[in-house]
Specification:
Rossmann fold, Hypothetical Protein Tm841, Chain: A,domain 3, six-stranded mixed β-sheet, 35% helix
């Protein structure tokens, strides 16, 4: 039987892609006004009406339950999580895996959102080919250092508040006409030089993508957004005009990710896959 693939909802994996690749997604949690709900049980519009929202990962028991369910049709499970630096989700996944008497491997993707989804898909492709569990893990570990994620947000307020970027970077979101940019890499978000307006920010994102291009390598790309699908589609259209990706999709941030970034985020996650692809 094949290896089963499990991830958390921070990957922002489109449901149709999760179904296509038989990927099980364990939802994260949001808490507001003393009420806890699973991701997917509350709309983004409703989330934005609550000024104070806390997020948390699935419990070890939730991971264990999904792993047990997947083992009904699989010999082993590879569980890929959001960066351990961002969330306790990875730790909970490790504990959940230990509670199951089966071969389960937990992989820290060192990233999130569409970049996490691309790592998950690398593992899913290996699993679908019938690869053993060590080879499935290896496929993910090859993809992780190849990942890039660059995005722009209307304000860095949410990222600063959550400690994802330094306080000093927050000034950019308060300057008229400035579009903050950040890169998420190796488990950390770091601010980049801001752009003079949204269009310039999009140009900067595309420029960084072009600069990374590796001749002969296959492109896997996700256009990311938080309640800004039209702009994400524009970025993806530009990419597709210049390169035919092996994998491409629009990854809409779930409510948990929006709680950390705020609405309006637009960006690209990508990797160039091949023997000469970039390494961290």
């Amino acid at each position: 039987m094949p290896v089963a693939i499990v991830t958390d909802s921070a990957a922002a994996l489109p449901p149709e892609i999760a179904r296509e690749w038989s990927i099980a997604v364990v939802p994260m949690w949001l808490t507001f006004d003393g009420t806890a709900v699973r991701e997917g049980e509350m709309s983004l519009d409703e989330l934005l009406t609550h000024p104070e929202v806390k997020t948390s990962g699935p419990s070890p028991g939730e991971f264990a339950a999904v792993i047990e369910d997947q083992l009904a049709d699989a010999d082993g499970v590879v569980l890929l999580t959001i960066a351990s630096e961002m969330s306790t989700t990875h730790e909970a996944a490790v504990l959940g895996a230990r509670a199951v008497d089966a071969e389960v491997r937990v992989v820290d993707t060192r990233t999130a959102a569409g970049a996490e989804a691309l790592v998950v898909l690398a593992a899913a492709e290996a699993a679908a080919s019938g690869a053993p569990i060590d080879a499935v893990v290896a496929a993910a570990e090859v993809a992780i250092p190849q990942m890039r994620l660059v995005a722009t947000v209307p304000s860095l307020e949410h990222l600063v508040r959550g400690g994802r970027v330094p306080n000093i970077a927050g000034w950019a979101g308060n300057v008229l006409g400035i579009a903050p940019l950040f890169e998420f890499r190796s488990g950390h978000a770091r601010p980049l030089r801001p752009a003079l307006g949204t269009e310039a920010a999009y140009d900067r994102i595309l420029s960084r993508w072009r600069r990374d291009r590796v001749p002969g390598a296959e492109l896997h790309v996700a256009a990311l957004h938080a309640n800004a699908r039209t702009d994400a589609q524009r970025l993806l259209d530009v990419v597709r005009e210049q390169v035919e990706p092996k994998t491409s999709f629009i990854g809409e941030f779930g409510t948990v990710m929006v709680a950390h970034t705020g609405p309006g985020l637009v960006g690209l996650a990508w990797r160039w896959a091949g023997p000469d692809g970039p390494a961290d």
